[in-house]
Amino acid sequence: MGNPRSANGNLRRKHRARLKAIGGECGICKGRLGPIHYDEPSDSDHPLSFVIDEIKPVSRWREFGYTSREAAAQDWNNLQPAHYCCNAMKGNKTMKEVAGERKKNDINIVDGLW
Ligand SMILES: [Zn+2]
After folding, report:
1. Least C-beta-crowded within 10 Å: which of 10, 26, 73, 108?
2. If you measure from the C-alpha of residue 47 to the centroid of ligand 1, how many angstroms do you get, rounded to a whole number?
C-alpha cells in the first residue's frame, strides 16, 4: 500500500471529511459558542473554524493505552469536531482535567464567555 506516512495522511483526511459531513457541534463547548464554521480556514483568525479534537490527547498516547501516537490520532472513536479556539484552550488535557482546573481556579462560568 505504498508509503505508510501518506496512507496515514489519507486516513486523517478521510476522518476530517467525515466529521465535516456529519457537521456536528463542537465537542468541547457543546455548541455553547454556536455552530462550527466548517467552511472557514482553520487558523487563529477564525476562532470558530473547524479542527479535529482528540478526546484523549495524542501526545499522551501511552497513558491511554494506544500502541503509538498515530494510533491515537487515527482512532475514529477518539475524534470529535471542535472550534479552533476551544481546541486551543483544551490543549493536551482531557475534558475532565479542563473541568477540574476550572473548578480549582473557581472560575465563574458565564454563558457564552468561552
Ligand atoms: Zn467550541
Report:
1. 108
2. 9
How does pLDDT run across 30-54, given as a tens digit for each residue? 999 999 999 999 999 999 999 999 9
Q: Nearest CA to 18 among 72, 76, 58?
A: 76
Q: Where are the domains of the chain?
A: 4-102
pLDDT in tens, 54-64: 999 999 999 99
CA of 50 to the centre of ligand 1 (A): 9
Contact, 21 vs 12, CB < 8 A?
Answer: no
Question: What residues are paired with 50 via a beta bridge?
Answer: 83
Amino acid, res. 54: E
